[in-house]
Structures are given as structure tokens and as C-alpha cells.
Predict the 3D structure of the following.
Amino acid sequence: MSKNNRIKGIYPVAVTPFKQDGSFDIKSAKANLDYLIDSGIKGICILGATGEYMSVTNEEHKAYVKEIVPYICERVSVIVGATRERPDEVIDLIKNAKKYGADAAMVLPPYYCHPGQDEIYMHYKYINDSVDLPLVIYNNPGSAGVEIEEDTYDRVLKLPNAQVVKESTGDIKVFTRLMLEKQDTVLLCGCDNMAYEYFAVGADGWISMAANIAPKKCMDLLTSIKTDKNITRAKELYRDIIPLLNILESVSYPVQTIKYLLSKKGLNGGYVRKPRIELTQEEKNYIDTNIDLKNLY
């Protein structure tokens, strides 16, 4: 199996703008996506964690995909987050994503139930055997509550649809092993404040929160390391964006932070859905003090 050449580069995990009553703000969503595409982005992930996927019902998820994916899929590569605990629901969401033109579906292991490694494998195998769309295997123990271990990775990545990995453990040794041993797998950085390290090791791209705010700088960072081999330039870029990356990986309100910063750029991230709450003025002040938007253009 050859490496999937459709999935590579920088993928902002786009926010999902909601109106104050909780309904989708499709107009603002499309404007934000146009901004990303006009910035030169070649791929976008919708309904990831930054897109508040767990705050929408399955029917809402399918309706949003129906509206949004056809709007962008002829201009950029599209990954749709399709995580649910029940694999039959995952399959339903993936089939809908494929129907409307998505290039891949991103799936965490089942969350909360703390599955064993055999259960993780069977979860992905059942999904793999039921769909015809590339899968992004998402290893994020902070979100799923369980890590995909080495032997399980090896088993899962033999499944024909398991073509992409989003590695978010923060353990560079895990990523390095994958880079050395999984030549046919697309390997994406999933830790915003380790992007430099992941690119230096050989990541094919980055599924990124920060790219909502600084798409050009994120793209330039990848190009400087992988294409131009210009480490001096890469360090300059990383110094500019690392305050944003560190905040997004440390605060308890990264989605709200991105939406707030979008508003400061003249865009509209919209409201968040419950159980999230809007930022306090103190939290906004903290963001304003620690992030200089002038360094992010």
C-alpha cells in the first residue's frame, strides 16, 4: 500500500460557530473557511475537538457535513472528525462524510470506558470493515483516556483504511518509531506546541488548533523545515507562534480562545455550546497579555 498523497500539510481544526441560541451559524462558518483557504491552506479538518464534535448530535453532525463539506471539498482536502463511543455511530457518520466528499475521517479510540488494547483494535477493525474511506487513527490519551500502545498500533495500521495517524501523545519517541517503521502511513503532528519537533523528525503535516489563527505562519514553519531545510527561519517562526501554541495546549478553554482571537481578526467564531461557557473578562485579558496577534500574520 502506497502512502495516501491526498492527506498532507497543515489542517486547521476549524471551529464550529454557533449562534447564541445554539444553532449553527453557517454563514460565519463558511466565511472562516474561505479565510483559511484564501490564506493558502490546502486541507481542513471539521468537527474535531476544536469543532466541538461532542456537543452536536449525530443528526446535527450529518447536517453540518452536508452543508460544509461540499462547500470546500473541491478546493481543499477535508478530514471529518467522526468519534463516538459506539462504533455503529462512527460508521454512520463516516458514510455520511464520504457521501458529501470528505477525504478521510478522524476517529479516537472509544472514550471514557477505558478500553483494553484488544478492544481498541476491534473498534478500528469493525469500522474499517464497514466503510470505504481512509481513517485517521487519532492517538490522544488525554482525550480518550487510553493510549494506543505499540503492538496495537502495529495491528491497527495493517488495516487497509488505516492510512493516517494523528499522534498526540506528546512523546516524540512514539512518533519517531512510527516514522521509521510505517513508511506507507501518513503521519501528522497532533501536539500544537511540539510542531517544530514533529516536523524535524519527519511529520507529513499537522492537524492544528493554531492554524485557525496563524495559517500562513503554520504553513511557513512546515515548509521551512521540510522543504527549504532553513532551520534559522523555522526557529524565527516558532518563536513567533509558540506563545499561542503553549496557551492552546495548556488552558482549559482552547476553543473559546480560538473563537475570541478570530473575533479580534475580524472573523466570527461564534458562541460555544454548553457545557462550555464564554470567556470571562479576566480570561480575555490573560489572552491579550500573552498573545500578540501582530506576530501571527
In short: Strands lie at 9-12, 43-46, 77-81, 104-107, 135-139, 162-167, 186-189, 205-208.
